[in-house]
Design brief:
It contains five helices and no strands. By secondary structure, it is mostly helical.
């Protein structure tokens, strides 16, 4: 083996190692990006506090259909105008609808398990904000 043949093999090996390391780094970055994309959005503390305020207001609904209708409109407007995280807003809107139907005596209230699952999904959006949402059962 000559010096130039050894030198070419060494260069090819180094180039191969560098290329492999680059591909591994690129794959890791792509995997991390997919992981992050699959995570729920993170709402601000203000959004999470507003969400809890809406849920708390739902506990005080009367059985007067007109009053419930006004509450639905005002909370929907408040949520749409002030809540930045639309994904959290969607979860809270589901709870609003369930609470309004219960107050009006219409429809079938969701099972406690459904409310708990909704609370879990909503709370995933408030993890970084340090707020834990409490969504009381509606069926009871």
């Amino acid at each position: 083996m000559t010096v130039s043949a050894f030198s070419r093999k060494k260069k090819a090996t180094i180039l191969g190692v560098v290329a492999a390391a680059f591909l591994v780094a690129l794959s890791a970055a792509g995997g991390y990006r997919l992981y992050e994309r699959a995570q729920p959005s993170q709402a601000s503390r203000a959004d999470c506090v507003l969400a809890q305020r809406i849920v708390d207001g739902a506990q005080e609904l009367s059985h007067d259909k007109a009053a419930v209708g006004e509450w639905e409109q005002s909370t929907a407007q408040l949520r749409r105008s002030r809540m930045k995280d639309g994904y959290l807003g969607f979860r809270i809107a589901q709870y609003e609808v369930w609470a309004a139907l219960k107050a009006k005596g219409e429809g079938t209230p969701p099972a406690d398990k459904e409310v708990k699952e909704l609370a879990d999904r909503a709370n995933r959006h408030c993890e970084d904000a340090g707020v834990t949402l409490t969504l009381p059962a509606i069926a009871s």
